[in-house]
Each structure stands twice: as structure tokens, then as C-alpha cells.
């Protein structure tokens, strides 16, 4: 599984979402051509992306929707429970906590944190919002797999450092800043510090989406469009 | 400017965000190596991505932060005003309307729409929330460049169709569904209908971010990591 481009992982996520929609419509068969059209890529791309992870479907026969869906769920690691804390419970944190579908994939919110005395102590989705300074103690007593950052931009780096210090190794950053790993000088070179080495940061950035949209709205001919190919 | 991969556009957006952070720290010079480390890609990738759009910087001298930033702003079309409507003014729509930074890029909210009588008539950021059935009339009397969809998943396709019918050609979809263009049968083939042909849909999907994070947290060795290279 070496050298799988990150864009392929993003596309797998899109294929999975399409398979869920097909299943909701009681459609039980699909093909790389069908998936490609719905995802806005080529059928060759679909087959190549899936081939990184094994052989799915039968040549010339397409795919069985629930089977391919189950396989993608497994590949993406969504068949296990992920315990999640949210740092920042303003409008954005609350929108995240209430975003539909997270619990379908066993993303379970186990702790909600803020610094605002007006929010701390409120109950949201059955959890009491805690002060972020209680995070280290919380992670000592509870398994936390992932941390979601929903704080203002100027607080995001500190929130990330707090999560990493508390032992959280997967971060989803909703703030419009690039989180930087802590670096140390070692033998005259800047190196990523040990506690950051295994940390994964993914971003959900509203502004990035707006900027991509602006670019493609001005340059629609540059948008990759599906080419109909034979299966 | 043909055949620029969508991943390159996403990376340009990341480089721009890094340049903004450098500028905020009063750092006036950078290099492809520096940008690469901060973005988590290779310096070769940075140079290749920038080369699609012209020659920036001087060989061996790196880049001047404000100049490269200005050029990326221009390339992405962010030096013009974008008039935006939001469809769906629940928690998510309100989080979007209040997300910091949108106005820095001249994304201007000009209309807010919902179907909930409890929300219609409320004033949010100086605008009165209107019923979504008033959207066609609104777009006849106001320039609308982009529409942001923040409705529940089962309403997203209808919201997109409403925007397209009202003449909006750029859509940012925050709902966790894949928006499908309307198709028509023509000569036995399914074809994308004329009004959808020029429509750009970009997605900001919280769940997609969560799924990518789950995958990379399980498979950290597959995360593209920067390779230090000489400029």
C-alpha cells in the first residue's frame, strides 16, 4: 500500500458517499463508469483508485453496492469506533457536534471543551462542556482517538498543541490556519519533535472551499470532467 | 492553463494560507523548501504547482511573500467581489456566515434563505433571512455569484436545483451528499442538461474530513511527508 496519493483517498471517500446514496435508493449494482460519472472523474481513475486496495467486483460485471461499500468502510477504518473530543463549542463546534451522519460511522463525541465561561457547563448532545485546561486529565481517564478543532484562528495552534500534549494523534482542524508541528533544533537542523512525529492533521477549511469555488467558477474549463469510457 | 490537476488548485489554496500566516508574522521572504515544509509536500511539488501559472520569484532567491501572495490571489480570482447567498440558516448556516476571513476575500453575503418559519425574518449579519421560495425573485433583482448549501442532507439536491434554476453557477455544498447534475435523455444517451453544464460544485464535507482522518490515523506511513530538498 505504498505511495497512494492523498487525492486517491479523497476520491475513495467520495465513492463511499455515492455508494451510500445508491443504497438509499435501493440500487444494488454499479460500475466504474457509473461511479465515475457520479464522482466527476474517469472510469479508469475509479478502477485505479480501487486497485490500490485489492480486487473488488468482477471484470465486466461491475460491483455489488453493499459489498463495495463494506470494503471501502473497512479500507478507511470506519468499521471501528473513534472517540472524539471537540475543542471550541461556539457556533462552529455546535454545528460539528450536530452534523448529520458522524454517528453512522461510529465517530463518538466523548468530550466537549471551551474556554468561554458562558459555554462551559452547558449540556450539548448529552455532554457537559468542560474547560480546555481539564483536557489532560480527561485523556488520562478516557480513551480519546481524535480531536476536532473549532476555535478561532488565533487559538488553533495552541488547541492543536494541547491535543498533542494530551496524547491525541489525529486532528481535524476546522480553523482557517495551517497547523505547524513543533520543531526542535538537532545538530543544526530543524526536526519535527517526537510527540508530533506520528500526528495526522486533516483540514476542513470553509475558506479553502470558497477559494477553490472562485477559481473554478472563473475557469470552468479546468474542472476535471468525466470522460465516458467503456468498462 | 490546460490539465491542471484539482489537487494542484487545493495546494495553491494551502500555499496562499501559509503566505498569509508568514505575512502576519512579518516574514517577507520564503522559498519552495520553506513552503513545502509548511504545507507537507516536496519543494519540487511547490515549484511544479506554481509553474502552471507563470514564473514567480527568482531562481535560487526564493519568493517575496507579499508579491507571491498577490499573484496567488489573482490566479485564484480572489481580487474581485463574490456575491454569495446561503441556503439553510440553522447552526451550520450561521457558523458559515460567521466563519472568520470570508470577508477578507470579498466573499459578501447578500442573501440568507431558509424554510423554517422560526428562522425566517431573523436578522443575521445585517441581513433578514428570507424564505427560499423568494430566491428566484431575489436573483432577478440582485447579482448573485455563488450559493452555499447548508441544509440537511435530504434537502441538498433540491437546494442545488433551486440555485441553478435561479441562475447561480457556483455552488459550495456543505451537506454530506454528492450533488447530481440534472440529466436528460438525448438520442438514447443520458446527457447533462444545459443549465447544469456550466455549474461548478465544490464540497466542504465534515464527514469526508473525518473519514480521511480515520484512514491516515490508521495508516500514518501513507501520509505524504515533506522530503527536504535543496532549492
Describe, in plain words, how this protein is organized in 3D.
The structure is a homodimer of 231-residue chains. Chain A is of the alpha/beta class and 231 residues long. Chain A folds into two domains: 6-76, Arc Repressor Mutant, subunit A, CATH 1.10.10.10; 82-210, 3-Layer(aba) Sandwich (Rossmann fold), CATH 3.40.50.720. In chain A, 40% of the residues lie in helices and 19% in strands. Chain A is built from nine helices and twelve strands. In chain A, the strands form four sheets. Chain A has a six-stranded parallel sheet with strand order 7-4-3-8-9-12, covered by helices on one side. In chain A, helix 5 (91-97) links the parallel strand 3 and strand 4. In chain A, helix 1 runs antiparallel to helix 4 and helix 2 (32-39) crosses helix 3. Chain A is globular, with a radius of gyration of 20 Å. The two termini of chain A are 25 Å apart. Residues 226-231 of chain A have low confidence and may be disordered. At the A-B interface, helix 1, helix 5, strand 9, strand 12 and helix 9 of A face helix 1, helix 5, strand 9, strand 12 and helix 9 of B.
Architecture (CATH level 2) name of the largest domain in chain A: 3-Layer(aba) Sandwich
Biggest interface in this structure? A-B, 72 and 72 residues
What amount of the residues of chain A lies in strands?
15-25%
CATH class of the largest domain in chain A: Alpha Beta
What is the mean predicted local confidence, pLDDT of chain A? 89
- The CATH topology of the largest domain in chain A corresponds to Rossmann fold
Distance between the termini of chain A: 25 Å
- Quaternary status of these chains? homodimer
Whole-number tally of structural domains of chain A: 2
Tally of strands of chain A: 12
Global shape of chain A: globular
Helix proportion of chain A: 25-40%
Strand order of the largest sheet of chain A: 7-4-3-8-9-12
SSE sequence of chain A, one letter per element? HEHHEHEHEEEEHEHEEEHEH
Secondary-structure-derived class of chain A: alpha/beta
Number of helices of chain A: 9
Write out the CATH superfamily name of the largest domain in chain A. NAD(P)-binding Rossmann-like Domain
Question: Sheet with the most strands of chain A?
Answer: 6 strands, parallel
